[in-house]
Each structure stands twice: as C-alpha cells, then as structure tokens.
Amino acid sequence: MKLSNIKRFWIALILSIPMIIQMLAMPFHWMMPGYNWIAFITTTVIMLISAAPYWKSAWAAFKKHNANMNTLVAVGTSVAYFYSIFAMFTNRAVYFESAAFVTIFVLLGDAMEEKMHSNASNALSKLVNLQAKDADVLRNGEFVKLPLKEVHVGDILRVKPGEKIPVDGTITEGTTTIDESMVTGESMPVTKKKGDKVVGATINSNGTFTFKATKVGSNTMLSQIVELVKKAQTSHAPIQNLTDKISGFFVPAVLIIAIITFVIWYVFLNASLVNAILFAVSVIVIACPCALGLATPTALMVGTAKSAKMGVLIKNGEVLEKVTNIDTVVFDKTGTITIGKPKVTDIVGDSKRVLTVATSLEESSEHPLATAIIKKAKEEKIAPVKVDNFAAIEGKGVKANFNNHTALVGSNKLFANSNISQEIQAEAEQLQNEAKTVIYVGLDQQVIGLIAIQDVPKPSAKAAIAELKKRGLKTVMLTGDNKNVAQAIGKQVGIDQIIAGVLPTDKADNIKKLQKAGNKVAFVGDGINDAPALSTADVGIAMGAGTDIAIESGGIVLVQNDLMGVVKALDISKKTFNRIKLNLFWALIYNLIGIPIAAGLFAGIGLQLSPELAGLAMAFSSVSVLTSSLLLNKAKIAGTSTQTA
Amino acid sequence: MNTNQIIVLIAAILLIGFIIWWFFGKHQETAENANVTKGKQEADVVVNGGYSPSTIVLKKNVPAEVNFDLKDSTACLSHVVFDQLGVNKDLSKKNVTPVKIPTNKPGEYDFTCQMGMFHGKVVVK
Q1: B-contacting residues of A 290-309, CB under 8 Å?
Q2: Nearest CA to A224 among A514, A548, A527?
C-alpha cells in the first residue's frame, strides 16, 4: 500500500484525536477511562502507518554508515514510543502522545514541503508548455496540420492571427505584430515583416504570415532557454559547500549531543529517567537539518525561473554568487551600447570616387561598418568594381588591388606610412568629435577621402548606465573605435571610463588588466569576438540576439537586446543570493538556539520544549525557509513594470 | 551516584564511541559496473535510506541509463539531482525511473537528493 505523506498525515491526525482530547482535559484533572490502552493502540497504528517509513529509511541508511534527518525522526519517535510501552507495563506515566505528535508534525512539514517544492519548480514546466502542439505546414502545395515533431528545417509554415508560432524561423510573406513577452519579457508587441526572425512559442496577434523554419526541436530558442534554466535550477552554489560539510557530521553529532543531554540530566542533575529522556528526544527532534538543506536549492530554483521570465537567463549558482561582488561593468560598444546598425552620414572628397573604391573593397567584408558603406553605395546607385588580392588586416581595415592601384580602406592605422593632408586631418577630427567613426579611403598611399559613419546609442543605454552608477558600480566602455568617437558616445550615455582603440583580440587582456587592479569585472558583449572577454570576466553577460558562441561563454544571457537587462540581471542575482544567505542564516540560528532550549539549558528560567513542540518548531522552520524562497517571486526588480495585484 | 547512574554513564560513553566509529570511521564503499547488452548499458540503483550502490562505473561511448528504484517512502529521497547535467527527477511517479547519462567523454557526475544530504556518483571511463 502506497500512501502519500498528506494521507498519512490525515490518518495519523484522526487517530490522535483521543490523545488531543486528553491533553485538553488535563488541566481539569479529568482522566479518560482506559486512556493508556487507547493511546497505546492508536499510537501503535500511527507508528506502523506513519513513522515506520522513517524507521525503515533510517535503518537502511544506518547499515550504510549514513545518518540523516530520517535517523533523527526515527530515533526520536521510537525512543518515546518504546519507553511508553515499557512505562505502561511497569505502571509509570506514558508519553505516547509525544511519539504520535512528533510524527504528525514531521509529516505535516514533509507534505507542505512537497507541495511548495512543486510550486517552486512549476515555473519551468509552464515554460515547456508554452510550445505549440501542431503547425500548418506546406506539403505538396497545401497547408496541412502536422504535429510539431514532423516539422523540419526549411519547411514553410503558416500562422494565423491568435495562433502560437510553432518553431523558430524567418518570415517569407506577410506582416504582423507578435507578442514575444514569454521569451523576452518585453510586454510591448513587436511588428514583424518579411525577412524578420520569429521565435517559437510567441503569439501572433493580428496578421497572417508564412515563414521558413530555421530551428526545430531542441534547437529552438525556447528549448534552449528551458535547458539553460533547468541546469541553473539544479546547479550548485559555492555557498552550499558549507551545508554539504555540515550535513556530513551533523546528524551523528546531534545524536551525541542528545546522549550527553540525557547523561547530564540523569546522572549529574539527578533528574528522573523520564525527564532526561524527554530532553534528549526534544534535542533529536528539533535538530532536523531540513531547513538548512532547503535554503539554497529552493531560492535558486525560484530566482532563476523568475529571471528567465524577465528575459534574463542565469547559468548557475556560481554566477549568481559572483555577481554580488561585481564592482565594475565593462561594455562592448558596438551592438551593446549602440544599436549596432551604423549609417553613413558624411563623405569627404570626391564622393562618387570615394564610395566606389570603398564599396568595391568592403563588398567581401563582414564588418558592421562595411554594411553601412555598401548600403550607402546602393542608395547612390554606385556599383562595386571587381577587385583582386583582397586581404583583411585584423582590426585595421582591408586592402586590395583596385584597377591596378593598391587601395586601402580602414582606420588611420592603415595609413601610418602615408601622407594625410592637413585639410583631411582636420576634417577627420571634426567628424570624430561629433561621435562619428571615420573610415579613410586611400589609393596608392594617398588618402583620397573620408567616410563618416555613425552608430547611435540604444535608447535604454543612458538610463541603464545611470541605474548601474546608482548602485555604486563603475562603468567602462571598451571599443576598437578612435578615442574621439568613443568619448563622444561615452558622454552621451554617461559612462565613467573609456578604453578606446582596442583591437578585438585585446579585449580579454583589457579585462585582465582591470582584474589585476583589484576590480571584480562583469563584461557585457554580443559578438563572436567577445567570447574570450566574456569568459575572462568574473561574470560574462551575453547580449540578446547574440551568437551561440557568446551565449556559450556568458554566465548570464540576456534574451533581449536591451541594456536595462544588465540592471535586471544584477538585481535579481543579488536578490536571490541575499535570499539564500538569509535562509541559511535563519536555518543555522534556528538550530543554534533550538538545540540548547530543547536540551533544557534554560529550564531553570522555565523555558523548555516538549518533544511535540520541538516537532512543530522543526516543521515550521522548513516551511518558513520555503516561504521565504517563494517570496522571491514577489521581489521588485528595477526596470520591470510594477504589476497591479 | 547510584549504580543505575553509573551503568547509564558507562553505556552512554560506549554508545558515543560506537556512533563515532560507525559514522566517522573508514568504511568500504560499494562500486558497481553497469551491464552491457546489445550496445546499451544499464545500471540499477536502489534508493532506500541512501543509494546502493553509491558509485556506478560506466563504459565510455556506450549509451547508458541508470535506473533509480525508489524503495524509500519519505520525502527526503523522492528526487534525484544531477547538478552537472541539469537533471532533477521525481522518483515517486514511477516504480523505476531511468536517467540517461552522456558517455561521450570520461568524467564523473555526482548525484544527490534534493537537499544534498545523500550522495552518489556515476563514473564514465
């Protein structure tokens, strides 16, 4: 017969009714006729149904040289029970109710713990359930409903208004607005058109569109988020090492303390055998380390799930703990502080010639600045000329053979050995002071013109950096850009320190330098070339639509490309970690205070605990730690809209 | 001090000595190899007041499953957690709960109950 803890609790509670009546009647000096026999029979049944599983588990553990909280429950209840049987047949006072009530309270604690535990882990299954069950897939020229399993990469799918988007993909036809809040935490619906990416499990609101599946099954964004959160929830926080160490010797130590308590009372203080036993049993019952064991995992579970809901994915408990010590936040510039979609604003020199050379060379480059130049050329209807001997010069620019002339396009570092006229030099400085990146275009060692490109800061950048400063954090911007440009952008968003002219490969070294100076550094970045910096930093925060590599190397992943996410990530991590510390503190204090009281240390001033009360207190401590963890769900985090209850 | 008290005192000292020896002394741990059948390996772990065996040895590159057989009906051991693998399984739903273990590289995966009071490990070599 398998009974759940809650059923065992109810059976035990009903059986204990005669004992409760007797307890209540005690002050009126009324004795239930045949009470000893009634108590003996009901307690025996309670022990068999409700306490026996603890005894069985404790015995199995004992044989393996292990002791745990079940050992404490088993020893406590069996001592009270078997002593009472002995007392009954030798005409002494019985204490069946102690055994019965301790069992009931422990069961109540266990049952509540199970319930709350499933509440805490629920958030994750809610995420999984977001997935659509089937999809409209184009097969043989017709849309047919197929289960999600049969959707493959490259399939064309159709989504109607109000439907869930089944998998990740790119829109091929139609425009619509999509509610992506479940994945990004952003509550405003987003407008999407042909060529835009859609994410599985988000909800299509008003338009019908078709899209091509790019990621299915376990590769979709939602699956990856679920996988990440799952790992985070089960992960170990370094602070737990403390409880792991304690748990190894805690229970045997408590048993020894209980024996010492008994000996002191019985042998040295001449207390009666019964009283000495009751003190020892109280010690055993109150010392259950449940609360200590629950403190970290439950807070971690609630905290990581809550942050996932806000679009902040925290990889594990270790990251959470490190965030609390961070004092410096380093940002990558392009794509992190700025939007990352630069535009050509000015051209100096013969604009047609300059643009022709530039677009011809940049055509094969993947640099974000190249995209801006190519776009501008297209707008001006300038066609690229075929070049040969193309070479990219890391962090500086590109070089190629353009109509039998050596052409160079890139930063001024490319032109270290060539002539740059005073005029052009002055123009360049002027543009840089306006926060524009200047690209030099040269033919045969002669600079023929400049292209100014500007990337604007994200709208949220200024507010986010102000929030970080308010928390006493130093903000640093790291960029390969020229100093003037970097300073102009830095000024706009209010950053503390700027490190400009950094080659992509040197980003990690700059982080190391900051760390050597005694700073605990968080790095926020998104690109492929940010991966080394992300893993070098104490905490790597990978941004939004970032690449898979960036997501791999980051300790925290922001689903949205929004800088406020950094503030949210730091806040929720700190809140969760503080909650863990608070939980551990209470659990420890509780045992530190509880054990001496139970041992009768304060019996002289009338403060003592019966085994039943010790059992109640123990159940209460586990439940209070769980409640404290669940309350994290209600914690306020900056940058999130306050929900009206 | 009467005779009873002296007897109790001696018994208590002996009992404390026994507890220290039994729980803190060095004791052999059981390790078990998995059974390999038809390109698949399986190992059974009985969950009753702990994990037996508490160490399971798996072969590299053979798909593996560890079956957890829950014989304990207290809340303590109802979940098994592999923190490196992101696995947190409720064992009370089924009689025997299988957990897949990646064997593509050698290593050790620790598993614990949800409070981290009971420990076991899977070794891949």
Answers
A1: 290, 293-294, 297
A2: A548
Residue matched to tokens 């748990």: A247
Strand partners for A499: A478
* Whole-structure pTM value: 0.76
Kind and range of the H or E run holding A95:
none
SS3 per-residue string spanning chain B: CCHHHHHHHHHHHHHHHHHHHHHHCCCCCCEEECEEECCEEEEEEEECCCEECCEEEECCCCCEEEEEEECCCCHHHCEEEECCCCEEEECCCCCEEEEEECCCCCEEEEEEECCCCCEEEEEEC
Pairing of strands A497-499, A474-478: parallel
* Amino acid at position A562, single letter: D
| Contacting residues of A for B9, CB less than 8 Å apart | 263, 267
ipTM: 0.80
Name the residue facing B88 among A53, A233, A252 (closest C-beta).
A233
CA–CA separation, A142 vs A449, rounded Å? 55
A252 and B19 in contact by Cβ < 8 A?
Answer: yes
The two tokens of residue A597 are 């009281």
Please report the sign of the dihedral spanned by the C-alpha atoms of residue B83, residue B89, residue B91, residue B96: negative
Each residue's pLDDT tens digit, A214-264? 988 888 888 887 877 778 877 777 877 777 777 778 889 999 999 999 999
- From chain A residues 272-291, the ones with a CB under 8 A of any chain B CB are 289-290
Of A57, A252, A297, the CB nearest to B24: A252
Report the share of chain A in percent with pLDDT over 90.
Answer: 19
Structure tokens, B37: 């059948």
If you write DSSP's letter for every residue of A296-342 in order, what string do you get? Answer: HHHHHHHHHHHHHHTTEEE--HHHHHHHTT--EEEEEIIIIIB-S--
A168 included as an active-site residue: no
Q: Which of A136, A155, A168, A332 is catalytic?
A: A332
Task: Measure A594 CA to nearest chain B CA, in Å.
Answer: 21
Do the chains contact at B76 and A66, CB–CB below 8 Å? no
Give every CB contact of residue A28 below 8 A, 6+ residues apart in sequence.
none
Amino acid at A443: L
All residues of chain B having their beta carbon less than 8 Å from the beta carbon of residue A59 are: 49
Residue A182 in this model has a pLDDT that exceeds 80: no
- d(CA A85, CA A73) in angstroms, rounded, equals 18
Phi then psi for residue A642, to 5 deg, are -70, 125
pLDDT digits (tens, 9 = 90+) for A542-572: 886 555 666 777 889 888 888 888 999 999 9
Contacts of A110 in chain B (CB under 8 A): 74-75
Among A residues 533-572, those touching chain B with beta carbons less than 8 Å apart: none
- CB under 8 A, 24+ apart: contacts of A65-68: A65/B22, A65/B23, A65/B25, A65/B27, A66/B23, A66/B49, A66/B50, A66/B118, A67/A251, A67/A252, A67/A255, A67/B23, A68/A247, A68/A251, A68/B49, A68/B76, A68/B117, A68/B118
In chain A, what residues touch B25 (CB-CB under 8 Å)?
65
Within 8 A by CB and 6+ apart from A581, the residues are A239
Residues present in chain A in total = 645
**Residues on chain A touching B78 (C-beta within 8 angstroms):** 114
In the sheet with A405-410, reading across from the earlier edge strand, the strands are A343-349, A446-454, A437-443, A405-410, A397-402, A388-393
Q: A240 vs chain B: nearest CA distance in angstroms?
A: 9
